[in-house]
Amino acid sequence: MFRNLIATGRLLRFSLHVIYGLLLIKLRFGQLNESQRHAQIQRWSRMMLSIFGIELQVSGLAARPGAKLLVANHVSWLDIAAVHSVVPEARFVSKADVKHWPLVGGLVTGVGTLFIERSSKRDALRVVHQMADALKAGDSVAVFPEGTTGAGPELLPFHGNLLQAAISTEVPIQPLVIRFSEPGERFSSSARFIGNTTLVQSLWRVLTAKGLNVSVQVLPSMGTAHADRRLLAEHVREEIQQGLRDAG
Question: What angle (nearest 5°) sits at the alpha carbon of residue 129, between those of residues 124 and 134?
Fold first, then answer.
């Protein structure tokens, strides 16, 4: 009963925070410069984690300045807030249906997300070109090359097609290791968003969880010039997988 009351309070605060974010994007973003927008994104993302009672821990190196392709493992819809809490300049590549999620779709669209139809190879090629243009312009782009969320401890295979944007522009890759934990669970079951779990079910699990923690580890950047994208994807996956084994 007490946990449900806490969860209801968190849900109310989360709803108000999402509305605030939408208003911020619509009414203020056009008046802010790039660094000010990034500061607002970071502040909003960290507050969102705080509303859910999620403690953020950051380790490793500072993300390198300038254009880069951020590559991370994928656990939850919370991953974007976790990464934006550390690297607020990141423009994510996300599956197209997220654009139509209630409220959240407006948020991710407003911060420059690139959307992809994952079932279409032709659309993947279009997004690679968009990513390359963004990287050439000095932006940082973030991808989850597993293509979907996993349970946490063991990574799914990495798809190398989106990494081609970094290879073509010779922009470095910055691997990130994301791990959610909670008391008694080195890899949190509450934060997972896998299988037939709906967004509403996942949201309630997070709202009712106790002692959730998310750690974001920034690994050393990697060069991409003349790399083979499949070998590069395997190498990045191995580095992130090792980071998960060493974590905790």
Answer: 120
Domain count, the chain: 1
Q: Tokens 């254009």 sit at which residue?
A: 67
Read off φ and ψ for residue 15, nearest 5 degrees. -60, -45
Nearest Cα neighbor of 147 from 72, 205, 87, 230 is: 72
- Residue 114 belongs to a domain with what CATH number? 3.40.1130
Q: Which domain holds residue 152?
A: 2-246
Q: What is the pTM of this model?
A: 0.92
Tokens found for residue 37? 């927008």
Return the biggest CA–CA distance within the chain.
Answer: 58
Beta strand spans in the chain (E): 55-60, 68-72, 90-95, 114-116, 140-143, 173-181, 213-218
| Sheet (strand 140-143) strand order | 55-60, 213-218, 173-181, 68-72, 140-143, 90-95, 114-116
* Under 8 Å between Cβ of 166 and 173: yes
Distance CA 127, CA 132 (A): 8
pLDDT by residue for the chain (248 residues), tens only, comes to 677 888 999 999 999 999 999 999 999 998 999 999 999 999 999 999 999 999 999 999 888 889 999 999 999 999 999 999 999 999 999 887 777 777 777 788 888 888 887 766 677 888 899 999 999 999 999 999 998 888 778 899 998 999 999 999 999 999 999 999 999 999 999 999 888 888 889 999 999 999 999 999 999 999 999 899 999 999 999 999 999 998 76
